[in-house]
UniProtKB/TrEMBL annotation:
Protein name: Methyltransferase type 11
Transmembrane segments: none
UniProtKB keywords: Methyltransferase, S-adenosyl-L-methionine, Transferase
Pfam families per the UniProt record, alphabetical: Methyltransf_25
The species this protein was found in: Rubrivivax gelatinosus
Amino acid sequence: MQDLNRRSYEAIAADWDDARTASGAAETRLIERLLEGVAPGARVLDLGCGTGRPVAQALAARGLRITGVDQCEAMLARARARLPGHDWLLSRLEDFVPEGVFAAAVAWDSLFHLPRAEHAGVVRRVRAGLAPGGGFLLTVGGSEHPAFTDTMFGHPFFYDSHPPEAARALLAAEGFAVEHGEFLNLPTPGRDKGRYALLARAA
């Protein structure tokens, strides 16, 4: 399924970059909360960084050093051009092992592209790479549902996620203290399964 997502993101990189130009109000507020107490120059991990806009761009504007990870080379090429001087790594999230210590980490709208059986391993490796008290901001699905495929810009994408309470329990089991959670959009009886943001700290 990751190959499906990689091929689809390669195909829509330009459309995605044109559409995803700015953070919403909730995203901006949560990033600011994540970065409370993080000094300029600190290293921040962006898992599923895409084209570097808007999340990595917001981090760079605060003087932070970004390590962005994505499995799509077409996305990373845009990130490298947009934000030179940062580290942009080609890797599947389920294979990536952080090197060194990070002050914070973000996995915004990326973890739910992996089969949920892979989520604990990703969270465990993020925890191992964070400084004590380092924050981890991520999004998960907003409801319980089986894995599914949907389309974006006419291309298929795979989705799977633990619901919010199970994601909270997973974070706690892997050494995080959940600080905050909120719905970004509620699930509907139709195709929208919902979206939930979590901010956790390395315990």
